[in-house]
Amino acid sequence: MDVKKVKIKLVKSVIGCKQSHRETVRGLGLRKINHVVELTDTPQVRGMINTVHYLVHVES
What we know:
There is one protein chain. The protein is an alpha+beta fold. It has a single domain, classed as CATH 3.30.1390.20. Helices cover 30% and strands 25% of the residues. The chain starts with a strand and ends with a strand.
C-alpha cells in the first residue's frame, strides 16, 4: 500500500494566537517559522491543519 504524505510548513508566527492553536502547531511538530514536517495524511492531521490553516502552508 502507498501511504500518502503531506508536507506542512509554518509560515506565520504563533505569537498572539490562541493557546489551543499554539498547542496544535506544536502537536504537528512545527517549531520555528519555515520549519517543514512531513506527516501521513490522516483525518486527524487534516483536522489539525484546518484549525491552524492561517498559520501553515500545505503541500500534498
